[in-house]
Design goal:
homodimer; alpha+beta; Arc Repressor Mutant, subunit A; 2 domains; 4-stranded antiparallel sheet; globular; DNA-binding
Chain lengths: 239, 239
DNA sequence: CGAGACTTTGACCGTAGTCAATTTATGTGG
DNA sequence: CCACATAAATTGACTACGGTCAAAGTCTCG
């Protein structure tokens, strides 16, 4: 419970996982000086000439997406508090953009911790692990849009978000805040806005979910997981 | 003229012809001792207890896929000669399996080259680059199955395979060998076998492609790329 | 030549898309 | 606190892309 932990009210995972010692607090302060803020809809970009930028989401949501020349969009993944990300230089067509979905805060994790051998290893390991889990989620996303039905896709995505947010302490009971419009669901799941609406309505009528005013509640995650073939990734509780 | 793609058991090349120094010959021999063969349909697995296995495809095709409990399949990517791959321990449900689609030859790239400083760096860089490009292709795959129509998906995938195979010298003119059944196309593109068949028939009738007996010809890649919103990855010709 | 795998075709169905209008938040300035 | 503007959600009518089922035709290879 150091000053560090208190400085991250929205993101309990990021630093506690690193086990920083007191003498490293100054390093962390430097870390926080790299804080950046973005408004909803803003695309994250890296400085001119720099190869790329590596950061971590502190608060807010973002997404990785591509836009086709004719306007179709595909969202690849959602970035939640605690998630590391990399912005590539090539930000335009054919690439992958990162866009803030809410007010967003990020920090840089490349420079400040250089030289802190211990923290660096822990950080590297944590980021590597996060990267591995993210790859798994990319595969989940492909299965969703490639082989699941609309209702399965929605439930599968909601379950993923539930467990990711739970891991960073952003779930209360069975409920969490979700700043996604139905248009964003559509672009993430490869469906039309209208069909998302109808499927959500159906799921509500069947008593599977509650969804209003930016909050979702998943009733009986057990049952929903079975319906949507969902399996959680990351640190498995094993038994 | 890729050495990797062409190197086969029949290759009569002598080491002296390659200009290798004596001390390197043993390294290369060790390298080739890790050659493994798999038959079509066989799933690649790692030794018991080992964390994972890293290899490179020498000849043949494979794919990464997941199978759902109810039998639905999603193919994530195809592995072609020259492609590096990693086999994870957890090979079962919820994971990602690598399956040979043809007779397959692979080599290990972890042990043998350790200690060859120069080669190690080059190898590491090459694999890192390959990994980056593969990530980009994963995003392409998501756009395909999430936002493209059946005809666009097929053309987009065929174009990807064309350029990847061209890069390793496996294309002659506009034509290349493609060991994929229509069922595999279906599982890769999130469509049904029947619809793949109809779409292919249509593309043939329209004069876009030739496809018979395991060979494809792409007529006018320019036009097809425009239709399918295709952009090649990897070493960009830039100008 | 025969068995099995693969492809092709037809008939019909259903999930999801499109278009368009209406209703309901959400938010902002007066 | 209300009026208005805008974004988001909802609903209906209709369309169509793609799925399913089933049968027949081809190709391969032992």
């Amino acid at each position: 419970m150091s000053a560090v932990a208190q400085a991250t009210p929205h993101s309990p995972l990021t630093f506690s996982a690193l086990g920083l010692e007191d003498r490293q607090v100054e390093q962390v302060r430097a870390f926080w000086r790299t804080l950046e803020r973005f408004g909803p809809g803003v695309q994250l970009r890296c400085r001119e000439g720099q190869g790329c930028k590596r950061g971590v989401i502190v608060s807010g949501w973002a997404c990785e997406m591509r836009i086709l020349p004719d306007g179709r969009r595909q969202i690849f993944s959602f970035l939640l508090p605690g998630d590391p990300f990399v912005i590539e230089e090539n930000t335009d067509i054919g690439g992958r953009g990162i866009v803030a979905l809410t007010r967003l805060e990020t920090i840089d994790w490349t420079n400040p911790l250089l030289g802190v051998a211990d923290g660096r290893d822990a950080l590297a390991r944590a980021v590597e692990e996060a990267s591995r889990i993210k790859q798994d989620r990319m595969l989940d996303q492909m299965v969703r849009i490639g082989r699941l039905t609309a209702r399965e896709r929605l439930l599968h995505l909601l379950l993923e978000l539930y467990y990711r947010l739970e891991a960073v302490g952003l779930v209360r009971g069975d409920t969490f805040r979700i700043p996604l419009t139905q248009a964003l669901f559509a672009d993430a799941l490869g469906l039309s806005l209208v069909h998302i609406n109808r499927t959500l309505t159906q799921l509500r009528r069947e008593g599977h979910i509650l969804l209003r005013g930016g909050s979702v509640t998943l009733l009986s995650r057990e049952k929903l997981s079975a319906i949507a073939f969902f399996h959680a990734h990351g640190a498995p509780p094993a038994m």
